[in-house]
């Protein structure tokens, strides 16, 4: 039924009802504000994703077609020295291929590890 037809000075229950209605109205307003902010966040994530995709497409196609200029050598990953008790084999260098599933580009990284053998 609500408390619309009641006078505020009639009882504490009516005052409590009005206060609860005010809180519910504010909660509804905040819920819509949260939904709107969440939607804006999702749109911004989509835009960042599109921008990153374009960036990597441009740079990967430039590198494949030789338009990238002088490209720096592939990075080398140096692993920490062997632990006590491990065999004392000399370090072996082996290529590690990184595959990106979106644009099928391949980057080579060199891994130096004492545990790898060719």
TrEMBL record:
Domain DUF630: 1-57
Record field: compositional bias (Basic residues): 96-106
InterPro entries reported for this sequence: DUF630
Positions of the UniProt region annotated as Disordered: 63-106
Pfam families per UniProt: DUF630
PANTHER family found in the cross-reference section: NITRATE REGULATORY GENE2 PROTEIN, PROTEIN ALTERED PHOSPHATE STARVATION RESPONSE 1
The name this protein goes by in its record: DUF630 domain-containing protein
Organism: Lactuca saligna (Willowleaf lettuce)
């Amino acid at each position: 039924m609500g408390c619309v037809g009641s006078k505020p000075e009639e009882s504490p229950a009516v005052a409590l009802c009005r206060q609860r209605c005010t809180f519910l109205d504010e909660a509804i307003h905040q819920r819509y504000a949260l939904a709107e902010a969440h939607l804006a966040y999702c749109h911004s994530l989509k835009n960042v994703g599109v921008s990153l995709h374009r960036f990597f497409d441009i740079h990967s196609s430039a590198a494949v077609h030789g338009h990238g200029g002088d490209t720096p050598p592939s990075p080398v990953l140096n692993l920490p020295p062997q632990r006590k008790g491990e065999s004392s084999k000399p370090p072996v260098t082996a290529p590690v291929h990184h595959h990106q599933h979106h644009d099928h580009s391949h980057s080579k990284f060199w891994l130096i590890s004492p545990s790898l053998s060719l």
